[in-house]
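Data availability (excerpt). The following record was deposited with the supplementary files.
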Amino acid sequence: MDLICLPVEVDKKKFDGRYRLVVAASRRARALYQGATPTIASKAKKLTTLALEEVISDKVQVLTGEAAVKARAEAMKLTSESMMDEAKQKEAIPEDLTEIEKDLKVYLKKKSERESKQSADAFFSEEGSE
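Predicted structure:
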């Protein structure tokens, strides 16, 4: 079934227009690109075509109206809560320095010691020559 060439028949009860179908398919395609598992077996090579097939075959739940608004608000709430939890965990647990950062600190400390020693040697050698 080549969805790109054939006109897509839309279930008027489920979708009030082709725009809603496109939005639903694009959101499903994004989920597939981010690693969601396909719900149907398909010959489609592209994830966008697979997403469109899933939406048309009713394998993906599409919310409209008030249900969609509530679901989006709940998803945003969960996202913000998880972000706050991650921030609290980072504050509670001090991050360990990586080996590179440790080596860099040692290098910078030795370099500053060498420079201070060289400047002290230069200072004393200038006084001795006068």
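Summary of structural features: The chain has four helices and no strands.
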